[in-house]
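Lecture notes, unit on protein representations.

Consider one protein chain, 119 amino acids long.
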Amino acid sequence: MTDWIKATELAPLRLRKRLKVIVENIAIALFYVDGKVFALADICVHKGSHLSQGLVFKGRVVCPGHQWAFDLTTGWADQWAKCQPVFPVRVEGDVVYVKLEPQVRTSPPTPAHDSGEPG
C-alpha cells in the first residue's frame, strides 16, 4: 500500500481552483470545488490533453482537447462509458496529500448514490 504523499500546499489550489502537480513523476490534476479537493490523472484517457487546463462545471472537469466531461469524484464520463483515473486525496491543515493508487471504474456509478469507489 502506498503512503500519503504531499502534493501541494492548499493555498495555491484554493486561489487557482485547479493545479497541475507532479508527484513521483506522475502528473496529477487537483481541483478545489466547494471546499473539497479532487485528484485525477492529468492526462486525459481519450486524446492525452491536460485536464488541469479544463473547465470545471457542475461537478465535472471538461477536457480542453475534445470536451469529454469527467466526474470529479469517480472519473466517469457518462457519454463515453470511459473512466479517468482518480487518486485518493486527503487534506491535513494546509497541506494536500495524495495516494499514488489510481482508481479506475469499470462500470458506471449508480444514479441515486455513488460511494466514489471503483466499480
